[in-house]
Amino acid sequence: MFTRSSLLLLVLLGAACSGEPAPAADLAAAPRADRTPAAREAGIQLPDAAVYDRARDAGFVCSPPAKPGELYALEAKTPFATTSLCQYRGRVLLIVNIAAKCGYTPQLGTLAKVQSSYGDAGLTILGFYSNQFLQAGSQQEQDACEASYGVNFKTFPDVNVNPPGEDPIFSWLKAQPGGAGPVLWNFEKFLVSRDGRLLERYATAVAPDAPELSAAIEAALKP
User: Fold this and answer.
1) Cα-Cα-Cα-Cα dihedral of 128, 111, 171, 198, to 10°?
2) pLDDT (0 to 100) of residue 17
3) Distance between CA atoms of residues 16 and 28, nearest Å
4) Percent of all residues in the chain with a pLDDT value above 70, rounded to a whole number
5) Torsion angle (degrees, nearest 10) of CA 177, 178, 179, 180
6) Residue 37 above 80 pLDDT?
7) Nearest-5° angle of CA 182, CA 183, CA 189?
8) Is the pLDDT of residue 116 over 50?
9) Is 62 noted as a catalytic residue in this protein?
10) CA of 6: how far to CAs of 13, 18, 35, 42, 147, in Å?
11) How many Å is the Cα radius of gyration of the chain?
12) Phi and psi of 207, rounded to 5°?
């Protein structure tokens, strides 16, 4: 049976993920790690708090150094640190532009399941919020949706996936063979090999667990 605090958290999560603004002082506004006890009480499974340690990349050294023009020479930004993509060298990457107030936002949950299924085999999903389609949501809404859908992969604050101010990571992705063209909507997916080559780009409507994407991930993970 849900307690009063459990029901409150569920209501707040639902409001944020449906596009309704949540109160500024609600549970969803707290840091992810601070929300964990209440979320668990409500039956929501959160990933380990270490996944969200935004400073965990501090001091990382890319060795051997990435070559100019490689994906691994780029960095993703957070408010408190930068994440060198070099740390994902040797892993298969699925890079996705995500949003908290989109009709496709439930794909966050499917992405989490894909991460769970293939993470131990070498897959890393990276989600980049973008508000160029005006659906990224506020930080509170993003946090609430991540809790609601059990997001267990690294996410990054808002970036531009198209000009002006296009993030260098998306510029790189779109400059690769098979990656050209503007990002048309939230939840486009870019599959990158263990050695940093773009393998395929998938449209928004292709679900994260679609047979063609699953087959491509499994092929990329093979030794």
Assistant:
1) 150
2) 66
3) 9
4) 74
5) 80
6) no
7) 135
8) yes
9) no
10) 11, 18, 11, 4, 13
11) 17
12) -65, 150
Cβ–Cβ under 8 Å, residues 207 and 213: yes
Helix (H, G, I), strand (E, B) or coil at 72: helix
The SS3 assignment for 95 reads: strand
Domains and CATH numbers, the chain: 4-221 (3.40.30.10)
The answer, yes or no, to whether residue 112 has pLDDT greater than 60, is yes
Question: Side chain identity at 113, as an amino acid letter?
Answer: K
Tokens of 212: 């063609």
C-alpha 210/C-alpha 111 separation (Å) is: 11
User: How do residues 124-178 score in pLDDT, each as one tens digit?
Assistant: 999 999 999 999 999 999 999 999 999 999 999 999 999 999 999 999 999 999 9
**Each residue of 180-196: pLDDT tens digit?**
999 999 999 999 999 99
Alpha helix stretches (DSSP H) within the chain: 4-17, 32-41, 107-118, 139-148, 168-175, 211-221
Task: Give pTM, 2 decimals.
Answer: 0.78
Q: Which of 17, 62, 86, 102 is catalytic?
A: 102
Instruction: For residues 62 and 83, give the distance between their C-alpha atoms in angstroms, rounded to a whole number.
Output: 11
Residues present in the chain in total = 223
Query: Phi/psi of residue 83, each to 5°?
Result: -115, 115
Alpha carbon distance 16, 119 (integer Å):
28
Token digits for 24? 């500024």
Tokens of 195: 């050695």
